[in-house]
Design brief:
Layout: H1 9-37, E1 95-99, E2 104-107, H2 110-118, H3 120-123, E3 132-138, E4 145-147, E5 152-155, E6 170-171, H4 174-184, E7 187-190, H5 196-202
Antiparallel strand pairs: 1-2, 1-3, 3-4, 5-6, 5-7
Length: 210
């Protein structure tokens, strides 16, 4: 005659704990299925750590009195199509781009503008670099709008822009850019020198594809 082996109190407690855990897991799974079975229910999706934001361009307003391709004040509600920030909150860094049709995109920094120009279709579906009529950046020294292609930028200074990283502060004159670099560090570059390698070194965003 064989008698069943006796379990120790520790083994019994362990088996009870395992049973309770399995019951809780089963109940949770059943609850999820029940919620998803309701009419109109949306299945839960795990967050990916990225948010895809599409910031539309803003139309030209003839009643503004401004020339179609003149720099415009940054509206409070405008958002940067590259990072989603509000350029009006960082006026010393703001930039803008105007298309041939008169629509405008605003940017939180010269860096975001140049990232956009390097790959226009990525951020503005159906548009290309040839659709861009003119672009402007804010003179970091004087605060006015200046042509982005003729501006002088300082790369490598500790000056933190809206993204808390190097954002290529822009200047209207070479002398102003050199004075800034002498005082704050970095080197002066022109728009033609802002290439893909330099942009990659400054772009701290996670990989993002629209």
């Amino acid at each position: 005659m064989h008698l069943p082996a006796l379990r120790s109190p520790q083994a019994t407690a362990t088996m009870v704990a395992i049973g309770l855990a399995a019951a809780v897991a089963a109940a949770a799974f059943t609850a999820v299925l029940a919620r998803q079975a309701r009419p109109g229910a949306v299945a839960a999706v795990a967050p990916t750590g990225e948010v895809c934001l599409v910031a539309p361009s803003l139309a030209y307003d003839p009643a503004s009195g401004l020339d179609r391709f003149a720099a415009r004040p940054v509206p409070a509600e405008a958002r940067c199509p590259v990072c989603g920030m509000f350029p009006a909150r960082s006026p010393r860094w703001a930039a803008q781009l105007i298309y041939r049709g008169g629509d405008v995109h605003f940017f939180d920094s010269p860096l975001s503008l140049h990232l956009f120009l390097a790959d226009v279709p990525r951020y503005a579906s159906g548009r290309g670099r040839a659709d861009v009529a003119v672009s402007y950046v804010t003179d970091h020294a004087g605060g006015g709008w200046i042509d982005a292609q003729g501006a002088y930028y300082v790369h490598g200074s500790p000056e933190a822009g809206p993204m808390r990283a190097g954002n290529l502060p822009a200047f209207a004159t070479l002398a102003a850019a050199q004075a800034f670099a002498a005082a704050r560090g970095g080197r002066v570059v022109m728009a033609s020198q802002i290439d893909a390698a330099l942009l990659r070194s400054l772009d701290t965003r996670s990989v993002h594809r629209h």
